[in-house]
Amino acid sequence: QVHLVESGGGLVQAGGSLRLSCAASGRTFSTNGMGWFRQAPGKEREFVAAINWSGISTDYGDSVKGRFTISRDNAKNTVYLQMNSLRPEDTAVYYCAGRPSIGTHRTGYTYWGQGTRVTVSS
Questions:
Q1: DSSP letters spanning 48-82
Q2: Which end of the chain is more exposed for a tag (fewer CB within 10 A), N or C?
Protein backbone atom coordinates (compact mmCIF):
# COMPACT_ATOMS: atom_id res chain seq x y z
CA GLN A 1 0.00 0.00 0.00
CA VAL A 2 1.30 3.47 -0.91
CA HIS A 3 0.33 6.52 1.10
CA LEU A 4 0.39 9.94 -0.60
CA VAL A 5 0.68 13.40 0.97
CA GLU A 6 0.40 16.53 -1.16
CA SER A 7 1.85 19.92 -0.27
CA GLY A 8 2.59 23.27 -1.87
CA GLY A 9 -0.88 24.64 -2.44
CA GLY A 10 -1.85 28.17 -1.54
CA LEU A 11 -3.03 31.52 -2.80
CA VAL A 12 -1.35 33.07 -5.84
CA GLN A 13 -2.15 35.89 -8.22
CA ALA A 14 -3.00 35.23 -11.84
CA GLY A 15 0.16 34.81 -13.87
CA GLY A 16 2.06 33.43 -10.91
CA SER A 17 3.56 30.02 -10.25
CA LEU A 18 3.31 27.26 -7.68
CA ARG A 19 4.99 23.89 -7.32
CA LEU A 20 3.03 21.06 -5.80
CA SER A 21 4.75 18.07 -4.25
CA CYS A 22 3.42 14.61 -3.53
CA ALA A 23 5.42 12.51 -1.12
CA ALA A 24 4.83 8.78 -1.26
CA SER A 25 5.54 6.06 1.25
CA GLY A 26 5.98 2.48 0.19
CA ARG A 27 8.54 0.51 -1.75
CA THR A 28 6.51 0.24 -4.95
CA PHE A 29 6.46 3.97 -5.79
CA SER A 30 9.25 3.77 -8.35
CA THR A 31 7.34 1.22 -10.45
CA ASN A 32 4.01 3.05 -10.33
CA GLY A 33 2.49 5.46 -12.78
CA MET A 34 1.53 8.72 -11.08
CA GLY A 35 -0.92 11.46 -11.89
CA TRP A 36 -2.35 14.78 -10.80
CA PHE A 37 -6.04 15.59 -10.86
CA ARG A 38 -8.06 18.58 -9.73
CA GLN A 39 -11.59 19.32 -8.68
CA ALA A 40 -13.10 22.79 -8.61
CA PRO A 41 -16.22 23.57 -6.56
CA GLY A 42 -19.31 22.23 -8.27
CA LYS A 43 -17.32 20.52 -11.02
CA GLU A 44 -16.22 16.99 -11.76
CA ARG A 45 -12.70 15.84 -11.08
CA GLU A 46 -10.44 16.66 -14.02
CA PHE A 47 -7.28 14.96 -15.27
CA VAL A 48 -4.30 17.32 -15.12
CA ALA A 49 -1.12 15.35 -15.80
CA ALA A 50 0.43 11.90 -15.67
CA ILE A 51 3.92 10.46 -15.67
CA ASN A 52 5.25 6.96 -16.17
CA TRP A 53 7.50 5.09 -13.76
CA SER A 54 10.77 6.44 -15.16
CA GLY A 55 9.64 9.99 -15.80
CA ILE A 56 10.35 9.77 -19.53
CA SER A 57 6.72 9.69 -20.64
CA THR A 58 4.24 12.41 -19.66
CA ASP A 59 0.70 13.38 -20.59
CA TYR A 60 -1.28 16.57 -19.96
CA GLY A 61 -4.85 17.70 -20.02
CA ASP A 62 -5.61 20.24 -22.74
CA SER A 63 -6.34 23.03 -20.29
CA VAL A 64 -2.86 22.92 -18.72
CA LYS A 65 -0.68 21.86 -21.63
CA GLY A 66 2.25 24.21 -22.06
CA ARG A 67 1.81 25.74 -18.59
CA PHE A 68 2.17 22.81 -16.19
CA THR A 69 5.00 20.28 -15.93
CA ILE A 70 4.89 16.97 -14.09
CA SER A 71 8.09 15.34 -12.90
CA ARG A 72 9.25 12.77 -10.38
CA ASP A 73 12.25 11.89 -8.27
CA ASN A 74 12.15 8.18 -7.46
CA ALA A 75 15.08 8.51 -5.07
CA LYS A 76 12.92 10.85 -2.98
CA ASN A 77 9.63 9.02 -3.59
CA THR A 78 8.15 12.32 -4.75
CA VAL A 79 6.20 13.55 -7.75
CA TYR A 80 5.91 17.25 -8.58
CA LEU A 81 3.60 19.52 -10.50
CA GLN A 82 5.14 22.82 -11.58
CA MET A 83 2.35 25.25 -12.43
CA ASN A 84 3.17 28.41 -14.34
CA SER A 85 1.04 31.18 -15.84
CA LEU A 86 -1.74 30.35 -13.43
CA ARG A 87 -5.27 31.47 -14.20
CA PRO A 88 -8.31 31.93 -11.95
CA GLU A 89 -9.85 28.88 -13.62
CA ASP A 90 -6.99 26.77 -12.23
CA THR A 91 -8.48 27.25 -8.76
CA ALA A 92 -9.25 23.80 -7.36
CA VAL A 93 -8.20 21.12 -4.94
CA TYR A 94 -5.34 19.22 -6.51
CA TYR A 95 -4.96 15.51 -5.87
CA CYS A 96 -2.02 13.21 -6.42
CA ALA A 97 -2.80 9.64 -7.43
CA GLY A 98 -1.00 6.44 -8.29
CA ARG A 99 -1.56 3.06 -9.82
CA PRO A 100 0.54 -0.11 -9.90
CA SER A 101 1.38 0.20 -13.57
CA ILE A 102 4.55 1.49 -15.17
CA GLY A 103 2.78 3.41 -17.93
CA THR A 104 1.23 6.85 -18.32
CA HIS A 105 -2.50 6.83 -17.66
CA ARG A 106 -5.49 9.14 -17.43
CA THR A 107 -7.70 6.66 -15.59
CA GLY A 108 -7.56 3.62 -13.33
CA TYR A 109 -5.77 5.16 -10.36
CA THR A 110 -6.09 3.05 -7.24
CA TYR A 111 -4.71 5.23 -4.45
CA TRP A 112 -5.11 8.94 -3.78
CA GLY A 113 -3.82 11.68 -1.54
CA GLN A 114 -6.00 14.00 0.52
CA GLY A 115 -5.50 16.98 -1.77
CA THR A 116 -4.02 20.46 -1.55
CA ARG A 117 -5.96 23.62 -2.33
CA VAL A 118 -4.83 26.07 -4.97
CA THR A 119 -6.51 29.46 -5.27
CA VAL A 120 -5.65 31.83 -8.09
CA SER A 121 -6.86 35.40 -7.69
CA SER A 122 -7.54 37.69 -10.62
A1: EEEE-TTSS-EEE-TTTTTTEEEEEETTTTEEEEE
A2: N
